[in-house]
Amino acid sequence: MESVHRPRLTPARADIRRAVRELLPSKGLVLVGLSGGADSLALAAATAFEAGRAGIRAGAVIVDHNLQTGSADVAERAAVAARQLGLDPVLVLSVKVDSAGTGPEAAARTARYAAFDLALERTGASSVLLGHTLDDQAETVLLGLSRGSGPTSLRGMAARTGPILRPLLGIRRAQTRQFCADAGLEPWSDPQNFDPRYARVRVRETVLPLLENELGPGVGVALARTADALREDSDALDELARTMLQEHFANGKIATSVLASVPAAVRQRVIRFGVEAMCGVWLNRVQTLTVAALVTHWHGQGALSLPGIRVIRQDGILIFSAPGLT
Description:
By secondary structure, the protein is of the alpha/beta class. It is 53% helix and 13% strand. The chain has 12 helices and 10 strands. The chain has a 6-stranded mixed sheet, sandwiched between helices. It is elongated. The mean pLDDT is 92. This is tRNA(Ile)-lysidine synthase. GO terms for molecular function: ATP binding; tRNA(Ile)-lysidine synthase activity. One of its GO terms (cellular component) is cytoplasm. Its main location: cytoplasm. Its EC number is 6.3.4.19.
């Protein structure tokens, strides 16, 4: 239930319930990743309602990142809210965020997703539902643009990524707040969501409002739509590259003629995917282009030594190996 008074069905509640209903599996157990904020709380309430109607079970997983004073109390408050909504089981998982070598946001994300994996293993649930909204998608695209990350980042978040489901990617953040108000729910406001030290907060609080003001309303929706289009193109190119990799890449070797015969977007994916498969290393764009130059701009270059991988061209063949091996 969403409150003891069973509030009326408003547009925000109807839209979010519908979004959840369209992505729920037909059987088993799902978990909602619940922080207690408006997005995840609205998602939890809608999931509890829709799961009950669909005849499946719904629980919650709350991750305490231990990054703020009183985080355990916040996690417990979220757990209480989950139980009041009828979610079961409710797991509270405490994690340690190690930001050495990465930023705090990336480190927290890594720890959080590891906790989701653990929750899936412990409960046997098929999926974890997350409350990322259209606004989160727009912010992700803008951050990708600012970093020159290419289609891998600009494609944004998918509604389905393995066991991770994101039903609210077509829902605005304002709708989740309205859902909570309509349903009599009191969301928690994370102070880190307003801390300008974080790039995403600056995008949310300054950059997107400025774009909306200068270019007109609808910028966020346009950015999310761009992510959808890029994801479709990127998925198709990824599939072509993986098929080529399977057919032509063996024992760390691939013919340069094969790589030269395809467009650059496919060639560079084949190189990245091949290196990842061999050594678990993900090349950035500059590194990938350096390897591709052994195909497209060959003039007798020697072996390339890149982090975690060595590449050499011999007799029209690119040979990939771990450093120190021939």
